[in-house]
Amino acid sequence: MKQGLSGRKVPEMGAKTPEHTVSSGNVFADLGLPNAEELQAKAALAHQIASIVTHRHLTQVEAAGILGTGQPKVSELLAGRLDGFSIERLIRYLNALDRDVQIIVSPKPRTRARATLKVTGKARSVSITDVACSG
């Protein structure tokens, strides 16, 4: 490695590029986990909830009061431990946080082999989150 103009180390010409795997766009599928599409959708919904809680500067106890659950569940949700949460429950939480949730069903394009599940949303503290999952 040599030092570039920015001061960062850069690989020298002809240096071997490390091997890597290109993602499918769904880290859960890349890891070979079952129900990868559902996991990806739940992660995207949980991210929206966490962004709202952060933006509003809510404590976990305050968030729990709004969501109608206990603080330990909010802790699990914010830590990304989503096993105990259904997609429907996460949607109810978003509604409790004054967010509309729209589910749009449309035919898949003929050019794609499988239909997809897509969660798209806006939260004030983050840019648009757009997650597509094959399903």
CATH class: Mainly Alpha
The helix/strand order is EEHHHHHEE
CATH architecture: Orthogonal Bundle
Query: Helix- and strand-based class?
Result: alpha+beta
What would you give as the CATH superfamily? lambda repressor-like DNA-binding domains
Describe the structure.
The protein has helices at 27-30, 36-55, 60-67, 71-78, 87-96; strands at 2-3, 9-10, 116-123, 126-134. A hairpin with a 2-residue loop joins strand 3 and strand 4. The protein has a two-stranded antiparallel sheet with strand order 1-2. The chain has a two-stranded antiparallel sheet with strand order 3-4. It is of the alpha+beta class and 135 residues long. The longest helix has 20 residues, at 36-55. Helix 2 (36-55) packs parallel to helix 5 (87-96) and helix 3 (60-67) packs across helix 4. The chain has a single domain (33-134), classed as lambda repressor-like DNA-binding domains (434 Repressor (Amino-terminal Domain)).
Short structural description:
With 135 residues, this protein is of the alpha+beta class.
Furnish the topology, listing elements before pairings.
Elements: E1 2-3, E2 9-10, H1 27-30, H2 36-55, H3 60-67, H4 71-78, H5 87-96, E3 116-123, E4 126-134
Antiparallel strand pairs: 1-2, 3-4
Helix pairs in contact: 2-5, 3-4
From the structure above, extract its key features.
16% strand, 434 Repressor (Amino-terminal Domain), extended, two-stranded antiparallel sheet, 135 residues
